[in-house]
Amino acid sequence: MKIIEITDFAAPELDIYARLTENQLVNRADPANGLFIAESPLVIGRALDAGCVPVSLLTEPKHALGKGRELIERCGDVPVFAAEEAVLCELTGFHLTRGMLCAMRRPELRSPEEVCEGARRVAVLENVMNPTNLGAIFRSAAALDIDAVLLTAQGSDPLYRRALRVSMGNVFLVPWAYLPEGDWPGFLRGLGFKTAALALREDSLDIGDPRLLMEERLALVLGTEGDGLRHETIAKCDYTVRIPMSHGVDSLNVAAASAVAFYQLTRR
Q1: Which residues of the chain have pLDDT under 50?
Q2: Integer Rg of the chain from CA
Q3: Which of 7, 32, 158, 161 has the most CB atoms lying inside 10 A of its own CB?
Q4: The CATH number of 112-265 is which of 3.40.1280.10, 3.40.50.300, 3.40.50.150, 3.40.50.1370?
Q5: Which stretches does DSSP call E strand in the chain?
Q6: How many CB atoms lie within 10 A of CB 116?
Q7: Which of 238, 265, 249, 250 is nearest to 200 (CA)?
Q8: Could you report the per-residue pLDDT of 111-123, keeping only the tens digit for each?
Q9: Among 57, 33, 34, which Cα is nearest to 45's?
């Protein structure tokens, strides 16, 4: 175990943690060298279980010699940067959850055809922008029997640090992929899915409608915060589905709506 005490905040090895933005970490110009940051022992462990390759770690010394030791040993011969909590807060600009970060190489993207193979229920996220919502949706997807998550390219990145943290690493437990541009409802139909757009419209089916549960393969389509799904998307879907509301509430947050829909529409 190579533990390196942090003495120089300007050290280039620390750029990953202190100075690179999420977009710089993604490195779209050179995807093979893209990185992400896993925060907390739980998330790091699930990333390692999924085969992600570590580059370095940043931790408090007590974790390096304590509860984080096993994780560090799993990371092999990579640098382990260590400093006390106050120093880490100064370096990163925020309090570290669980006191441990790991920089990792981004895994190779999977194709939507691959993640949908054998899937019965998938979630489709159209332009969901908030990493907190995205992480919460992945956590619900893992807990409530969603077989895969499909995303449009304009939405948030499942490997953003906050999305990973909120998901509690469940991003690594549910297969996910990006949809092709253009008529992706037609693409899903070609894979054998019926599509159900969650939208509050007068002609929507109640989410408890038995016809939805009878579908062998169903894609549950959720839209961006605020505006919801595009009208063009709703028009191309096979069903429009609503969650009934009480007390004049007009809608649920997309993460809350996803949990309700996943629970209701994955029941056998």
Answers
A1: none
A2: 20
A3: 158
A4: 3.40.1280.10
A5: 3-5, 35-39, 54-59, 80-82, 100-105, 121-125, 148-151, 176-178, 194-198, 205-206, 218-222, 239-242
A6: 23
A7: 250
A8: 999 999 999 999 9
A9: 57
